[in-house]
Amino acid sequence: MATLATAVIVAMMVAAQLSIPPLLPLLGRDPSMLQSGELWRSLTALFVQDYGLAGALINLATLLILGPVAEKRLGTAQWLVVYFGGGVVTEFLALAWQPHGAGNSIACFALAGALTLRALKRTMGVIQLCVCIVSVSAAVTLLLLRDIHGLGYWAGVACAFAWCKLHELRPRPGRGNSPVARSGQ
Fold it and tell me: Can you say how many angstroms the Cα of residue 138 is from the centroid of all Cα atoms in its chain?
């Protein structure tokens, strides 16, 4: 549901952007967003696309392929945290490497990072292990190339890790909420 809703909003923004070209500079990532207090642009930059219609179609296809898998594996709430949290964090980090830009591809890479982390927490076969190795290797390569998609991937890993740690600390009904019960003694 979150994937479809996000894809519809992105598609509507692409249509609006094609009709109103000034939307990209108004809503995209730009160093002036910090100086002018327009921090909201770290979110709106995830909805406009800086590589035209071809880039928008690729980003939408990626979201529609990867998004449902991530939503099924992570759940809708974690999907939202990873996609938007990882995306917004990456928009700020990207100011150092690519100060101007926009697009949801970095949020899709955040989902890929979260899915890799989830896979690494499970018992895997050889194929799944190879996919994880390729995924992590690609993300490291992107970082070495100073490509912001590598930042997106690792922001997704960080968001998913934080999600898991916060949920480990949360008391669970019926399992004993005293410190002794939580410590297993």
Answer: 16
Quote the pTM value. Answer: 0.89
The predicted structure's pLDDT at residue 174: 65
Q: What is the pLDDT of residues 34-62, one digit of tens each?
A: 889 999 999 999 999 999 999 999 999 99
Task: Quote the CA–CA distance of 165 and 115 in Å, as a whole number.
Answer: 16
Give me the domains of the chain, ranges plus CATH numbers.
Answer: 2-171 (1.20.1540.10)
Q: How many percent of the chain have pLDDT more than 70?
A: 92
Q: What are phi and psi for residue 127, nearest 5 degrees?
A: -65, -45
pLDDT bin (cut points 50, 70, 90) of residue 169 is confident
Cα 72 to Cα 151: distance, rounded to the nearest angstrom = 24
33 and 102 in contact (C-beta within 8 Å)?
no
Q: What three-state secondary structure class fits 101?
A: strand
- Cα(47)–Cα(177) distance, integer angstroms: 42
The length of the chain in residues reads 185
User: Is residue 29 classed as helix, strand or coil in its secondary structure?
Assistant: strand
